[in-house]
Amino acid sequence: MRPRRNYFINKGLQSRFVAGFSLAVLAGLLANLFIAYFLIDRELAQELYKIHIKIRTTSEIAVPILIKLSAITVSAILVFSAVIGFFLTRRIELPLLELREAVRRISRGDFTQSISLKIPGELPSVFNAMSRSLEAAFSPMIKSGKALEKEFDKLGSGSALSAMELSGALDALAEARRTISHEISKLKV
Question: What is the pTM of this model?
Fold first, then answer.
């Protein structure tokens, strides 16, 4: 059994994102604890100096500092994560938009479409190979259809054609029909 192909998610990118995000959160937490330690230490030193005036508990001193510091740290982590998420989403979204546009053009009959090889994985090469094979399969039918249309136009425009010309035009139509039938039979599954 063949392993499943992964067209859109680059596992290396995903693991780097998770590792980077985890490191950013850990760095934010350590920075928060480090700054909290020094701010609380400074505040305690000031309070010890003022001890003769008013005595406050450690929690009364530390809680306001920790709340302010946590709000700043959490906000910074959220902004950092949003920026990273935006760029990663664009990195995934742009190739998918390019693929969607190429598929639309192929569905309209433009089989010359290909997508950029900058997209990671096998998708670009598989898509481009499909586009080339569709072009190879349908171009003879398109040419035969144009020849058939040209012969029909000759028949329709020339009402006073001689029997010889009519016979030649009908033979050309029959040949074009056989060619188209042959090309269509190649496509049957």
Answer: 0.46
